[in-house]
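Protein modeling request. Please complete all fields; requests missing the sequence field cannot be processed.
Requester role: graduate student
Desired output: 3D structure, token encoding
Chains: 1
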Amino acid sequence: MLLLLTLFSMALYVSVRSFINAQTTTQLQLQARALLRERADGPTSSGSHEPLPTAALTDVQRAELQELAAALTSSTTSVVVYQADGTVLAQSAPAQERRHGWRPGHGLRGQPRQPPAPPEPPAPPRPNDQAFDQVLRGADVSFRDYDAMERQLAVLMPVYDGSYLIGVLQISTSLRPTDALLRWLVAALIGGTLLVSLTALVLSLWATRVIIDPLRRLVGVTQQVGQGDLAARSNLHSHNEIGALGRAFDQMVARLQATFAVQRRFIADAAHELRTPLTAVGGQLELLMLGAVSDPTQQRRTLQRMNGE
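Delivered output (309 residues):
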């Protein structure tokens, strides 16, 4: 049972992680496509293995791409715009937030207390050559970066100007909230597994006490009765089927014991009733055998008395 719970927990963890990553990827793609909608007339991924046509960037296009990067940047997302040759054209990081719990005041010697320095945001992930090459062919690519200070999920999308690819947009977000949720899920699954295992252990101990032990006791009493000990009793008083079986068994053995007691009393009474006549007959036979009675008439009377016994 513990193995099944462990396998179920692992499958649930993998499913939830895949679902959250897929939802995060979709959210990033929708966020980027909302600003790229005016460029939707460009070519899309159609299964072609050839790179899309590219064009040299004008100053206006550079400015537009930089504005696009700034517009897509938020407190949770960072944006990088690459040129077709892989060089970085524009880059923006999430805005740093003031740490919660800080209050202005004075430190030692009356000097104003400075707010704590916010943590440096992690550097945007860098796509590998294979992912970048797929984007140059018109496909949207998502990847996760495990080498940074924290895990990040990034989406690469081509940027078009008419029928020409003028850049590659990368929008990424930290997976810190997702990892925190997954850690909570792991803790909950471990706690739930331990709770279910403990409950199963308690139920098994209860079943052993309520079911197994009375059955073992009834089997032992049955063996004692089979060996001739009719005084053995199970003395099961539980209010369930096993208790009813034990009481019925005890009543059966009690009736058997009473029946055998009646038989023993009958045999004892019969033996007592037969003992006196047989003693008298035995004594008269001894007289006849010793010749104490020689008169034929007396012998006949003795035999008649023996026959009357």
